[in-house]
Amino acid sequence: MSRGRPSRRRRDVLRVLKAASSPMSITAIAKVLGVHPNTVRFHLNTLLNDGRVEHIEPYRKRPGRPPLMFRAIPQMDRHGPRRYRLLAEILAAGLASARDPSAKAQAAGRVWGRRLTASEQQREKTSSDESIDHLVGVLDEFGFAPERRKSDGQQWIDLRHCPFLELAETRTEVVCPVHLGMMQGVLESQAAPVGVDRLDPFVEPDLCVAHLTPLENAE
Questions:
Q1: What is the pLDDT along the chain (219 residues), one digit of tens a residue?
Q2: Is there a contact between 116 and 188 (Cβ–Cβ < 8 Å)?
Q3: Strand stretches in the chain, DSSP E
Q4: If DSSP codes are grouped into helix, strand and coil, which group holds residue 76?
Q5: CA atoms of 41 and 63, how far apart (whole Å)
Q6: pTM of the shown model
Q7: Is 58 helix (H, G, I), strand (E, B) or coil?
């Protein structure tokens, strides 16, 4: 038997229940689909556990145990396919067509970066090393594979992976400023004495570099 058959059958059971004008029994569903009631019972259990189908108390007209009745819960299919990349491409294309798209993208990323740690308890003072370590942790959580690097008083964060790679390759003017703004926002939310003044994308096929700099007005 094909591994895909059970999921298709489950969709069939759900489709029958959605089309019904009233709750249905297992036997009635099986009759519509031309399958054994045990097959319907198996898939109904999964649909119940997923919160897509519910039991309905039958109206008792006669003595004895009435059959279990079921109906579909009206809702969008939360197990269906997602197309978040398509959404990202649409939004990026819209932003790219606006005036000064890089600045707008950077501002959006900065707002998002501030919100990432807005609920965390803020310390009165944050050292440069603590701030950078915090930023590296955030970048690591989001899949950027960051590597902190310093030499001769200068510091960088190497980014070895881009979680939006395909989009970044075609919409560099939008996606990379979002990343820059996000890093700036994360540091700003920590009142950090250091900032990210530049992000160089794809300096190597597997490397983007964020340049760190001390803030002049930091105490």
A1: 334 344 789 989 999 999 999 999 999 999 999 999 999 999 999 999 988 999 987 666 666 677 889 999 988 777 778 888 899 999 999 999 989 999 999 999 999 999 887 655 455 567 899 999 999 999 999 999 999 999 888 999 999 999 999 999 999 999 999 999 999 999 999 889 999 999 999 999 999 999 999 987 654
A2: no
A3: 24-25, 53-56, 69-72, 146-151, 154-159, 194-204, 207-214
A4: coil
A5: 24
A6: 0.71
A7: coil
